[in-house]
Amino acid sequence: MSECLSYDAPEPVFAEPWHAQVFAVTVALNEAGRFDWSDWAARFSATLKRNGVHRELNSGDDYFNAWLETLEALLVEQGSAAPGDVSQLRDKWEEAYLTTPHGQPVRLAGE
């Protein structure tokens, strides 16, 4: 009797494209020497604890919102971004995302 092997497509690593993007930006900044990964991990862990994120820690908006919060705070602390600029840009991206028709690329006004 021969067994029939079935191949199921792997689950996506990231639930949303922006999850992958914020992860990639963080890794690129680390590889460029902008911060030490152990420092990043400690900061991210503190953000997760502070926000009470107790759900599955390998996906989901809560997890990546905490990831983004940590990255934004680190960039502000380093002087790479001004707090007001970070908030303003985040708000512009949210507005663009919410007003873009499904399936279309999200772009900021003026791009």
Break the fold down into its secondary structure elements and pairings.
Layout: H1 17-31, H2 37-51, H3 61-78, H4 83-99
Helix pairs in contact: 1-3, 2-3
Q: Specify the biggest β-sheet.
A: none
Annotation field: number of helices: 4
Number of domains: 1
Percentage of residues in DSSP E strands: under 5%
Keywords:
111 residues; globular; mainly alpha; 0% strand; 4 helices; single chain
Report on this model:
The protein is an all-alpha fold and about 110 residues long. The chain has one domain. About 60% of the residues lie in helices and about 0% in strands. Helix 1 runs parallel beside helix 3.
Structure, briefly:
By secondary structure, the protein is mainly alpha-helical. It has helices spanning 17-31, 37-51, 61-78, 83-99.
